[in-house]
Structures are given as C-alpha cells and as structure tokens.
Design a protein that fits this description.
- This is Ubiquitin-like-conjugating enzyme ATG10.
- One of its GO terms (cellular component) is cytosol.
- Belongs to the ATG10 family.
- Pfam families: Autophagy_act_C.
- GO terms for molecular function: Atg12 conjugating enzyme activity.
- The protein is α+β, with helices and mostly antiparallel strands.
- The chain is 27% helix and 24% strand.
- The chain has six helices and seven strands.
- Strands 1, 2, 3, 4, 5, 6 and 7 form a seven-stranded antiparallel sheet that branches.
- Strand 6 (138-142) and strand 7 form a beta hairpin.
- It is globular, with a radius of gyration of 17 Å.
C-alpha cells in the first residue's frame, strides 16, 4: 500500500533505526527486534518501570476513588518516596501493518513489580480517560509476531496521522509523538524530535 497516509516497510525500518540510535545515546531502552528482512516481522520495543499514585493504580485496576484527577506518574523509580506510590511495568511495541501500510502501537501495563501480574484492561483505560487521540480506537488484539494479547490502537487512525506528518524527516517519530500520550503517558525525549527536522542519516 502506498500513498500520503502510508509508510513503506523500508521507510519504517530507516525511521526505526534512527529512533534506536538516539535511544542508545540517551539510554531510553528502545530496541529493534525481529527479522528485518521480512516486511512486518521486525518491531520497536521499549520496557519500563515507573511509579504511580495509589489513586491511579486503583483506577487502572477498576476501582475509582475520589481525587483521581490528582494522579501522577513518576518517571524515575528513585523519586517514588511515598509509601502509597505503586509500581507499574509497561511494555510498548511499534509494529508495521502490511495491510494498512502504517505503524501500529501495541502496549501492555501491569500494576505490579513484575510484568504479567495485575494487568491493566481496555475498560479501565477507557473509563479513566474519555478523551484524547485514539482511545475510541483502543482494543485488545493478538500481537502478530509474539502471539500474545496486547492493547492496540487500530491502524485506521494512523493513516490520518501519517498524512499530517508529510513534511517530517522521520514520520515514525512524528506519529509516535502524537499517539504516545494515549498509551499510559509514554513520553518521547525532545532529542527524538531532531530526527523529524534533520533527516535519518540516509547520506
């Protein structure tokens, strides 16, 4: 599939490798996994552990206490000094959809010290955040490479976002910066945005 709202497999790989290069420079944990020779069989992956307020942890577990608007996510685990702060493990994957010709964001989160324990559900996220890009398109889906269940933003949304990044030198980063706030506060370091201006080192 080709067009203004798409990203080819070769473009995806070039943009992804540029993102990983910057990630390595700033120790941000993004890596490229899988078989790069087969379209759609390699993907970006980032795992992280943060600490969140007990109110947010309760909401993501399906309980909605008073004062939920005061939730916070602490990026540095060493900053979590309050007893009521709870650990949260997250895993974000960016894949390429052969059918749609766009990147697709998959993610999982667990209110726990360990991935796989006390998973966050689609319903809890949708109840917590009723507005913002992508939440109406969030669903549970099977990871096409790993074969496990993830939360997924439907690729139909990505086409429009990619089309709006036509001037970007790294459309993958521009797209990811748009959908990241909807994936449990996935943040991109400002250094990634240099890629959207300066190109991908294609020579």
């Amino acid at each position: 599939m080709d067009g203004p709202g798409t990203l080819s497999w070769d473009e995806f790989l070039i943009d992804a490798k540029s993102l990983v290069r910057v990630s390595n420079e700033i120790s941000d944990s993004w890596e490229l996994r899988g078989d790069e020779r087969a379209p759609g069989q390699a993907y970006l992956c980032r795992k992280a552990k943060t600490f969140i307020s007990s109110n947010l942890a309760s909401a993501l577990s399906g309980i909605y206490p008073q004062g939920l608007e005061n939730y916070k996510i602490v990026d540095d685990p060493f900053e979590a000094k309050k007893v009521e702060d709870c650990p949260m493990c997250t895993e974000h994957h960016v894949l390429w959809s052969m059918s749609y010709g766009v990147p697709v964001l998959y993610f999982n989160a667990w209110i726990s010290d360990f991935p796989g324990v006390n998973a966050v559900t689609v319903e809890s996220i949708q109840n917590l955040v009723q507005q913002g890009v992508g939440y109406n398109e969030l669903s549970q889906a099977m990871h096409p490479i790993e074969g496990t269940t993830f939360l997924q933003f439907h690729p139909c949304l990505s086409g429009e976002l990619i089309q709006n990044t036509s001037m970007s030198k790294n459309k993958l980063v521009s797209w990811l910066s748009t959908v990241a706030p909807c994936a449990l506060n996935l943040k991109l370091d400002p250094k990634y945005f240099n890629l959207t201006l300066e190109g991908n080192g294609k020579g």
